[in-house]
Amino acid sequence: MQLSLRNIDFIWLVLMGITIINSLIAETADTNLVISVIIAISVAFKGRMVVQHFMELHNANRFLRNMMNLYFYVIPLLIVIVQAFPAEIADITRLN
Amino acid sequence: MNSTLTLPQPEDIEPGNPQPVQKSSAPKPGRIPGNTAIWVAIFSEMSEFALMFIVYFIAKVHNPEVFEAGPGKLNTMAGMLNTLALLSSSYFVAKSVQAIRLDQVQQSIRWLSASVATGVIYLVIKYWEFTWNEAQGYSVDTDLFFTVYYYMTFNHFLHVGWGSGALLWGIYRLKNGAYNSQEHEGLETIASYWHMIDLAWIVIFPLLYVLN
Q1: Could A54 and B57 be called an inter-chain contact, meaning their C-beta atoms sit closer than 8 Å?
Q2: Quick one: closest CA in A to B83, which residue?
Q3: Domain contains A24
């Protein structure tokens, strides 16, 4: 098996490994900003790998690829922002 | 590399065209995988899940104690096994599509069957997890974390259910010879939808089980 992030067999193993590491973090660490950044990066990476190589958008229609990639930039960014500025976000989303 | 070339067979030569059709497991550049309509559905569903994630974020900043305690009350092992099941299922579907591009119909059926099996494993684990939650005294009314948890995960559970049905349809079509290296848009359509279900879970798992 070719150890390359273009080979879906290898990508599958990497994604499984990241999931197990995430689970260990869930069991052992309290969330702080550093943990949030690590989790956000892992979400971005896993999403991108599935979009690019399982969904095969890496050389497909550019609009589809960009929109799907954007999703996995925005959601991880929100994970970090919510962890970093919870009070400020609570203030701007308060109804009264 | 994904691309695998095979020797041309007599059936690879199209009538009126002496050049053999070159088979490759790699997709054509610039194309839309599956049909266009499924991408409307995929973007609609991704938007629906994005709305749920935004609700989660807003609920979390307004109820930090509840959302800090919530993940610790869930069964992390069940969440992890379900993530492994869905990632594997997505991988099996990708292998099935690669196989049909090489006209390996039986191989494609085997990969798709493995995908259905892992989809069913997900459903069984998730059902067991809901039962386990109930035994621990947790329900949709326990607190806001569990309300969001049940809304998000049950919604996703339904997607895996009907997505598995779509995979079964793909197996049926493969067995009836509907797909081959030249025509497999239907299989790509099912595959794209199934990957979307996996993508939603890639976000749900850390939000609910990891970020305590």
Answers
A1: no
A2: A19
A3: yes
Q: How many CB atoms lie within 10 A of CB A47?
A: 22
The count of structural domains within chain A is 1
Residues on chain B touching A25 (C-beta within 8 angstroms): 210
Tokens of residue B144, six digits: 């806001």
Partner-chain contact B203 A57, CB within 8 Å = no
- Residues contacting residue B147 through CB under 8 Å, at least 6 positions apart: B140, B141
Residue type, B91: Y
DSSP per position, A61-88? -HHHHHHHHHHHHHHHHHHHHHHH-HHH
Give A72's contacts in chain B (Cβ within 8 Å): 199
The span from the CA of B81 to the CA of B103, in Å, is 33
For residue A2, being part of any structural domain is answered with no
Q: What are the pLDDT digits (tens) for A18-33?
A: 999 988 988 887 878 9
A56, B97: Cβ pair inside 8 Å? Answer: yes
- The tokens for A43 are 């979400």
Q: Do A19 and B71 touch (CB under 8 A)?
A: no
String of DSSP letters for B167-181: HHHHHHHHHTT---S
Give the domain extent around B191: 34-210
Distance from CA of B207 to the nearest CA of A (A): 8
Say if the Cβ atoms of A59 and B203 lie within 8 Å.
no
User: Is this complex's ipTM strictly greater than 0.85?
Assistant: yes
Q: What is the CATH number of the domain that holds B167?
A: 1.20.120.80
- Kindly list the residues from chain A whose CB atom is less than 8 angstroms away from the CB atom of residue B77: 23
pLDDT tens for each residue of B55-96: 999 999 999 999 999 999 999 999 999 999 999 999 999 999
